[in-house]
Specification:
The complex is a heterodimer of chains A (635) and B (173). Chain A is an alpha+beta fold and 635 residues long. Chain A has helices spanning 2-29, 39-62, 69-74, 81-87, 92-113, 119-143, 168-183, 185-197, 201-233, 244-269, 273-295, 309-332, 348-379, 389-410, 423-446, 454-468, 470-473, 478-484, 486-508, 610-634, and strands at residues 510-516, 521-524, 527-538, 542-552, 557-567, 573-576, 578-581, 585-596, 599-608. In chain A, the strands form two sheets. Chain A has a five-stranded antiparallel sheet, with no helix packed on it.
Chain lengths: 635, 173
């Protein structure tokens, strides 16, 4: 009965969101008070409905109700309870429900926290959001109902959650990512309302900015956690693979970053109004497009979702309806009354324009690279190719370089016109000093310098110096400055740290395939790797071969364990990498194949500075979150 | 001129949607046509019952036949199982099993308990043959005619209905 209750609640949600999707719109359009409904209370009601429905699905997982097909496919009696909980969003159906929940949470926060003086504006934002949620709910109910039952004979046990998803990072990675994607609904709805009401650019940009920043923060965290998860769980030791699903998250991230930068200029100076609207639409569109690419099965990826072309048509329909609709309004709209254009090439406005241009070029190229295999397959009649890291890296490098150079200078630019570029001299000098210092440290740590990494490392220094030394220009102490401009400092500094991590890890990494039997030793860099012993163990739902490894150098002996697990319900194998984290490097070992008896292949890697990548991402997320929260409080 | 730029995003996006839609319909056809009218792929895998016995495509001797992809972790396979048993009991046609990414002991236990509808089952732990067949998941069923050519493919549970609509006609040929 309980799953049916969840189903009924979801249907109720569908109906209520449908009503919410057009009644407030109609009341604004006809200026009719009788059509008025209390949108704040309705938001709360919608949230209550979707939350209950979600909780019921969680409950079905926790009590092992295998008569629910989704539970049977993604859980198992022996699964630890916290993974049962996380399995709720372990596959397509449940993650859609979570997505709707997330959209609702955003709408809820927006309705209660944002204070727009204009009631009608809020009504339209509410209606548009309801329409999107309605479409998602309809999609869920028609093609991917998580409450579908296997009756009359339910299976006795479930087929288990995909073992590589049974992991701590995974339990939080998808919710963060979905919150990031779905948060882009709010800027989208605001942009459409702004077009309909012909709202002043400064005004609507101020509504939109905090929510864009917050979704960007969630996207950053989600992507970084995904990257971290791939690093230690997939056993390859890489941190970014240019997998279609990663790209599908990266593209909206790039656009949301472009958007909130463009919104700064829109809010402060009333410029780029049209551009910000367009970006809001496309940021939202790419977040849906990503979903489409991943779940329709037209692209293959490590993220296995059940493939169903019918779902693809539906998502494409949703995407088409909302994006074509909003672009239609855009193309019919006359923006001339609302445009301000008064800035010089040397201005901060122009800096934002360049930043946006570069980010959008990056986004478009990555999107193109992601769907190019499909285009190729279509024109060559079925030949398959894959676009790999080389393409993306070639594209990324020049634009990222330009972006970084711009970022280092950006904070020194002034609105309208920048009086003097004297700061450049000092910035260059100080960056070179920091650069030399970093190289010295690298040389001491690794006895080696790689020319190939110089550009990236210099860029990192440039960004960091540019971010921190701005305090001097303002004649403030570091501390006072940091207090005032904490958000932007964190975010920009985070970018510098991330770039530094990338620069070092791509040039200084070592890796080697080894074949070892227990007792064997191997010299690798300044480390001696010792395969001490091999044991058999068992977990709640897997058995495992466990290799005990020592990394020994002159000073000290570090012990680490790497595992090959066989999950019992599905028979699927996973590798648990053994990682020793030091401030400047990770020692990484993962078990490969069992060659004969006790002889195994291993992959060892030394990954210097890899943690700095995620540390940087974390700072970026904290920075944008701080900025978003500050702006909500202020309003 | 100014207006043209305003319409450009809309125009671009409509083209993108159109292109994606055409990919999607392509994909739909592909699912149906993969390996259809092709001979059964070569393989060399162990038998489920006896890990030392190697099976190849030449062991699929009794034709026409069904190849059924199954696993113990596949819930839908259990729903399908009684129907396969019925086909066997009524000697409609021989069925060969492809045990897919499964645990050997568990799979044998299941056949012991619920009955074994298969002439034999190929044990495909790594899913090699399944990749060659373009298998999406379990259950999936292929019809092979008397010349060893794959004629039909069904993704999902085979029951009375599916049998009549998709497979029975080939047996009459």
């Amino acid at each position: 009965m309980i799953p049916e209750l969840g189903h009924i609640i979801l249907i109720t949600f569908l109906v209520v969101s449908f009503v919410g999707g057009f009644l407030p719109l109609a009341s604004v359009y006809f200026n009719n008070q009788t059509l008025d409904i209390p949108i704040k209370r309705l938001t709360f009601f919608l949230f209550f409905l979707i939350f209950s429905s979600f909780l019921i699905l969680v409950y079905s997982f926790l009590v092992d109700d295998f008569s629910v097909a989704y539970v049977a496919q993604n859980s198992n009696i022996n699964l630890p309870f916290y993974y049962k909980f996380a399995a709720t969003w372990g596959a397509h159906e449940g993650s859609l429900l979570l997505w709707i929940l997330a959209m609702n949470a955003w709408l809820f926060s927006f309705m209660y926290l944002a204070k727009s003086p204009d009631k009608n504006f809020m009504k339209v934002v509410f209606s548009i959001s309801c329409q999107v949620m309605f479409a998602f709910a309809l999609f869920t109910l028609l093609t991917s109902n998580p409450f579908e039952r296997i009756l009359p004979i339910p299976p006795l046990n479930g087929s288990d959650l995909n073992p590589s998803l049974q992991d701590i990072a995974f339990t939080v990675h998808p919710p963060l990512l979905y919150f990031g994607y779905s948060g882009l609904l709010i800027p989208f709805a605001i942009a459409v309302s702004a077009m309909l009401f012909n709202t002043n650019t400064k005004e609507w940009a101020a509504y939109s900015r905090p929510w864009t920043l917050l979704s960007c923060a969630f996207l950053t965290l989600g992507i970084a956690l995904g990257s971290w998860w791939a690093y230690y769980e997939l056993g390859w030791g890489g941190w970014w693979f240019w997998d279609p699903v990663e790209n599908a998250a990266f593209v909206p991230w790039l656009l949301s970053v472009a958007l909130f930068h463009s919104l700064i200029a829109s809010e402060s100076r009333g410029v780029f109004g049209k551009w910000s609207i367009l970006l809001s639409i496309f940021a939202f569109a790419t977040s849906l497009l990503g979903t489409f690419l991943v779940r329709s099965g037209i692209l293959t990826s490590v993220h296995a979702f059940a493939l169903d072309p019918e779902r693809g048509v539906f998502i494409l329909g949703i995407l088409g309806f909302f994006v074509i609709g909003s672009l239609l309004i855009y193309s019919l709209k006359d923006f001339t009354s609302n445009e301000v254009k008064a800035y010089e090439l040397s201005s901060k406005e122009f800096g934002f324009l360049l930043n946006n241009l570069l980010l959008v070029i990056l986004a478009v190229s990555i999107l193109f690279g992601t769907i190019f295999p499909l285009i190729y397959e279509a024109i060559t009649d079925g030949k398959q190719i894959s676009v790999g890291a080389p393409y993306f890296e070639i594209i990324l490098f020049p634009f990222a370089l330009a972006l970084g150079l711009l970022q280092g200078m950006a904070l020194y630019l002034s609105w309208g016109v920048t009086a003097s570029f004297n700061f450049l001299q000092r910035l260059t000098l100080e960056s070179i000093s920091l650069f030399s210092l970093v190289l010295l440290v690298l040389f001491i740590l690794f006895d080696n310098l790689y020319l190939s990494s110089f550009a990236t490392i210099f860029l990192a220094c440039w960004i960091m110096v540019g971010t921190l030394q701005i305090s001097k220009k303002r004649n403030l102490s570091y501390w006072n400055f940091l207090k005032k401009r904490m958000a932007v400092t964190f975010a920009h500094l985070g970018m510098g740290i991330l770039v530094l991590g990338v620069g070092v890890v791509t040039s200084y990494s070592l890796e080697k395939e080894l074949i070892l039997a227990p007792g064997d030793e191997f010299n690798f860099g300044d480390q001696t790797i010792k395969f001490k012993s091999l044991e058999d163990t068992q977990g709640p739902n897997y058995f495992s071969k466990l290799a005990n490894i020592n990394f020994e150098d002159k000073e000290d002996i570090k012990n680490v364990i790497t595992e090959k697990r066989t999950y019992i319900p599905s028979g699927q194998l996973t590798t648990e990498a053994g990682i020793i984290t030091e401030p400047f490097q990770d020692l990484y070992i993962s078990m490969g194949d069992n060659l004969e008896a006790d002889i195994w292949s291993f992959k060892v890697q030394i990954k210097p500075f890899i943690r700095w990548i995620w540390l940087g991402a974390l700072l970026i997320a904290i920075g944008s979150m701080l900025s978003g929260i500050k702006r909500i409080q202020r309003s | 001129m100014k207006k043209l730029i305003d319409i450009l995003p809309l125009f671009t996006f409509i083209i993108l949607i159109g292109v994606l839609f055409s990919f999607l319909s392509n994909k739909n056809n592909q699912l149906e046509t993969v390996l259809i009218d092709d001979t059964f792929p070569q393989f060399s895998l162990s038998s489920l019952k006896d890990s030392s016995e190697t099976l190849t495509q030449y062991d699929i001797k009794k034709l026409p036949a069904l190849i059924n992809i199954w696993a113990t972790w596949c819930i839908a396979c259990r729903i399908e199982h009684p129907f396969l048993m019925k086909l066997k009991e009524e000697s409609v046609l021989p069925i060969y099993g492809l045990n897919y990414k499964d645990n050997r002991e568990k799979a044998l236990e299941l056949l012991e308990r619920d009955g074994d509808p298969f002439e034999f089952s190929i044990y495909d732990f790594e899913g090699r043959l399944a990749i060659d067949l373009g298998v999406y998941g379990a259950p999936e069923t292929f019809f092979i005619d008397s010349n060893g050519v794959i004629r039909e493919r069904h993704v999902g549970v085979v029951d009375e209905d599916v049998w009549k609509k998709k497979f029975a006609k080939y047996l009459d040929e």
